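ok here's the first one, seq then struct tokens
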Amino acid sequence: MYIEIYEMAVNGENLSITLTAVCDSFSSLLWDVEYYSCGRFEIYITANPTNLSIFQKGRIIGRSDDKQHYGIIEKIQISADAENGDYITISGRFLMSFLSRRIIYPMFRFTSETSYYEIVKSVVWRNCLSDKSGGERLRNLPGLHISEFASPCWQKTAQLQVSYENLMEWVYKICEIVGGTANIRLEKSADDEYSLIFELSQGTDRSVLQTENPHIVFSDTYNNLLSFDYMLDTTDYCNFAHIFGQGEGLQRKSATLYNGKLPTYFERYEVYVDARDLSDEVETNGETTHLPANEYTAMLQERGKEKLVSITEKSESTIAMNDRQYKYNRDYFLGDYVTVQHERFGLRQPKIQLVGMIESFDQNGYSLTPTFKGE
């Protein structure tokens, strides 16, 4: 495995991405891929004029064995030490961070049931790809393309309204609602040009609770679970939302939302959601009308989905690298549901999602540190 360094140049609306250098002499590499947030990377390498000229702010970092995730250099730190030598630490986030450079405006309102794919596609297109003239054109992200394919979870529908939120953070909020993920990767064309591809996908169920796919089980009894940290936390848990929209006092419009069976007594954990920014006014041909009550209620409930918090069931482990049963990115992938069990403690998580994976390359070899999160 080696590191690839790409030069990115913008010429008007066109983007040129070229492979500038490759590097296989780094001291360490951390590759932190996340499912519900933007991943990060860090490279630790000897400081010399050649490396300083190669690793520059704004260049894209890739790996020869990973064509799904690419990073953008955001931070360069030089450490000079007479005893231990001179080193550079290069770090940054993955390409989804491009969306963090935009806010959502103007207001987007989806008053009829619309798939989350179409919602996200419309918002990203309007804020990153709109071909309007004048100042709006300067908001474009040249070279960005939206994939026309989206996994089944993105076909769920909703009615919602959104404005002025950070675009990347909002997209990941939607990811958590539907159980999917978003990513921007590089795609090489026949003429050796590269494009930025924004796509929406989801993980696969490989747990013991299903029969369609081979089971993936990490267990101390199988000797493929070297370390195991487990946490169950109800501190921030809330399962019943009171959402309040426009209006004042008793006239303020409101809605409630809960998942599954109506929670009662000690099992109800309530949260207040301020949604007064959701407008029920619609302007058509210069005439202002109000949304029907049921459509406005649906938008209030959609806002409430963002505030419901599940019980946090999370574990972080170290997986055996000499495991002959399962290989990461061959037998299982980020976002997949697997089974994790620790027989010595009597803990069994029959279906838990792989939401993060840190790959570490250093003088000690290669290691994997996954993070699992319960449904």
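and now the second one, same deal
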Amino acid sequence: MLRDHRWLQRYSYVCVVAALALLTLPILFPPVNGARIWIRLGGFSFQPGEFAKVLLAVFFAAYLAAGRSALAYTGRQVWRLQLPTGRVLGPVVAIWLLSVGVLVLERDLGTSLLFFGLFVVLLYVATGRTGWIAVGLLLAAAGAVAVGWLEPHVHSRVEEWLHPFASIEEGRGPGQVAQSLFSFAAGGVLGTGLGLGHSILVGFAAKSDFILATAGEELGLAGLSAVFLLYALLVERGYRAGLALRDPFGRLLAVGLASIVALQVFVIAGGVTGLIPLTGMAMPFLAQGGSSVVTNWAIVALLIRVSHVARRQYDGKVAP
């Protein structure tokens, strides 16, 4: 259906409007496990934020491809950082407010981190300015600290991250993060063997984000490292496809799509292993979840299309 990825650039604003609509729809539905990220109609349910991230990647790539000169060569020099001007910084602040809004209204820490992280990564790729990384980290830290203290659901996630064994000391039994750490410890280097883990102890999330704990217990550190290498290989191929393209939009789109996978893996693995607060996202291609599976295969399909066009440009069959 998509013969050239550059066709998407024409409909970038349609993509962002559709993405915003998909993000706000779950607010009208009751929360599931404390987060408003699902739409349930009868026996059918889906997670619209999964589809929104691809649409936002298209919009970010189109916006940054059109304004990369202003983003890269305007601003003030503060110490060793090239900071952007206020007019250019406006869209970045708007995206930051969108991320914080998603975090507050839907209590979805993972989606918020993913959206803002994706935009900051593409900003850096488009401009090569480390100032954007500094601004992004400062805004992300400010938003996370504020919402972490004010929003009870997010605050409880932060408390569980800081004190994963507090529930055991209080006699309430281990929580999900503690059970996850126990799973990694039980797996050791080589694991307990396929089907010989105790993922049921983690609870309902054993088939979604905490499926990584099951993999760590049954496959061990060696098997888990192999899983991460497969993710790294997929991301690397996406980056390589972007580097091979000559048009700025395609390059940013490929980097953005590959970064979505990379950010998801980092956010989920970090939460399950206790590196960062738990987010509640689905592990790409590994966790149960229809919306996530469809979206991730769409990302792979787009990367294949981008790679195909890049190869034809290299062979001289397509105009740059």
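notes on #2: Residues 5-314 form one domain. The chain has eleven helices and four strands.
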